[in-house]
Amino acid sequence: xxxxxxxxxxxxxxxxxxxxxxxxxxxxxxxxxxxxxxxxxxxxxxxxxxxxxxxxxxxxxxxxxxxxxxxxxxxxxxxxxxxxxxxxxxxxxxxxxxxxxxxxxxxxxxxxxxxxxxxxxxxxxxxxxxxxxxxxxxxxxxxxxxxxxxxxxxxxxxxxxxxxxxxxxxxxxxxxxxxxxxxxxxxxxxxxxxxxxxxxxxxxxxxxxxxxxxxxxxxxxxxxxxxxxxxxxxxxxxxxxxx
Amino acid sequence: xxxxxxxxxxxxxxxxxxxxxxxxxxxxxxxxxxxxxxxxxxxxxxxxxxxxxxxxxxxxxxxxxxxxxxxxxxxxxxxxxxxxxxxxxxxxxxxxxxxxxxxxxxxxxxxxxxxxxxxxxxxxxxxxxxxxxxxxxxxxxxxxxxxxxxxxxxxxxxxxxxxxxxxxxxxxxxxxxxxxxxxxxxxxxxxxxxxxxxxxxxxxxxxxxxxxxxxxxxxxxxxxxxxxxxxxxxxxxxxxxxxxxxxxxxxxxxxxxxxxxxxxxxxxxxxxxxxxxxxxxxxxxxxxxxxxxxxxxxxxxxxxxxxxxxxxxxxxxxxxxxxxxxxxx
Lengths: 243, 329
Hints:
The complex is a heterodimer of chains A (243) and B (329).
Chain A (H helix, E strand, L loop, with lengths): L2 E12 L2 E12 L3 E5 L6 H8 L7 E6 L2 E2 L5 H6 L2 E3 L12 H7 L15 H13 L15 H12 L6 E5 L7 H16 L3 E5 L3 H7 L3 E5 L2 E6 L1 H5 L2 H8 L2
Parallel strand pairs in A: 3-8, 3-9, 6-7, 7-8
Antiparallel strand pairs in A: 1-2, 1-4, 4-5, 9-10
Helix pairs in contact in A: 3-4, 3-5
Chain B lengths: L2 H20 L3 H27 L6 H19 L6 H4 L1 H19 L4 H21 L1 H4 L5 E2 L13 H22 L2 H18 L4 H27 L1 E2 L1 H4 L2 H14 L6 H20 L5 H15 L4 H24 L1
Antiparallel strand pairs in B: 1-2
């Protein structure tokens, strides 16, 4: 299996706190890789560094075989690396369809064309249908429930046809039925070739969905491997699962 | 465009064109010119700040630059009086807009309050430049433009009125076009959550710069017509913070982010301001009256005239529907 994302010696300090400390790991292409660890272990900071939302003090990120020299969310997203946020972030004043179409990565020459063109609406509705949101398509996104906002955010990042999606706690604050729906979506999309890197606290979900599992503690990689290996790793049990 | 939208635009255009013929006294047309001027300024401010959420307080710097560009061109290149200056307006607008881009690129690296303050300093920088670049601007002595002699005494204001009306129409068309385009979607995404927009691959900097260019383009043309109208400009009058505050308040009054809101704001406020200036000008009490209009509107319609009215209509409809449903069951 080839490596799609490689993180090498990544370090980020905030004053006296080293949030990510010479962290190295790899995400194989076509995998659903989990990034787990106790609160404050540097998962979200690592996400921010990988997606260009924060600049690393040291270390290198390689995506699709190329070193990311000047990490910038716009450029990374357009090259196929996209993410969702811990707290669902959507454009509240836009409709669901507009939220979806806004996420299509357009060339400049279309800037003055109609906001939502026929085939774009069709594509948006198709994806909304898959996520069970099609009946709310013309609704203002701000009116959705929190779980629905999570689904919309997930669906929207897919509009840009990414190669790698970083999901930051996709099931946090979501009811069990929606958790199942999100899990099913991830599996389906993965089967179609999409790679995922998932930060998640729901360990049951991680253990049945992800492989490999990478465990972070104090900003550095503690363990990595098949869910069963990680589950039985004594260092992980000490640091994270509490024995 | 929807049918209602088309009707609204046609009605606006009909009233706009008929006004100087129906209300021909010069002082009334003069109020018309000022109203249209503020409406165009407020609309173009809305095009940038209303859609992106970046509050600029430096718009009037480009109004002044437009005014000075036309006046200096007159002085040095003698493009003649009469209608000629109107023909070069798009060039003045585009020139000032392009010249503003490097500053915009730097200013747009800041956000929220910082951006507002940075743009506010632009206003004072341009004013200071107008004072100090004496050889070009004549400093505080001001610049004189030739008075057009071909316009006729009784209809002198009309060409300026129609020039302002034309610019306002351009501004409205730009707003309408942007709102229904992908650029509009990008700008609204910036207003809602810029960081998220970047993560989706939306080219936020480019989108903001285009909106900036368009708003400066309109603003500089308004400034140029204004300079020609007055035939005399000086730093305090052409880069006047009160004009800036006026345009922003009119937008808030009418409804930020809406197409017609800024026009409604200008139509309500400018005549009120001029009326009070006429009747209470000597005692400066007009400023009290002017602020009273704001207080009343903000108390009764806090989100601006248009959004508040729309909310009211929606509420009434919902109530009626609920009543009907209750009666049916």
